[in-house]
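Input sequence (115 aa), recorded before submission:
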Amino acid sequence: MSDWREHPPMSYEEMYGYQRGRVESRDLGVYIGGTVTEQHDYASRMAAGLACPSCATPFPSWCSIANLKVWEAECPNLFSSPIADGARRLISQGCCPFCQIEVSTPAFNLLVSGL
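Predicted structure, token format:
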């Protein structure tokens, strides 16, 4: 996929009964569609930190303080919104600015592969 915004078709499902500590909560199940090749390619992007392993949002670059300028250039709407400061902080910490989960190969392995 030549544009970082491109991704295969996806569907989402709310899941209930997920436990966060001792509090019952809800979570989001993500299903990547498309061809097997497209699914594999997108999962590879997630494992490499170029898409969120939890909410499957594609990223213009890795989540890090070094890449904030890339994020600001590619996602101007995100940084002109009320959540801009929080998004900068999360990206700088290596977390998804949307669902706040850590974006890393170990996070991918835990969430997607169960390793």
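Checked by second reader. DSSP finds five helices and two strands in the chain.
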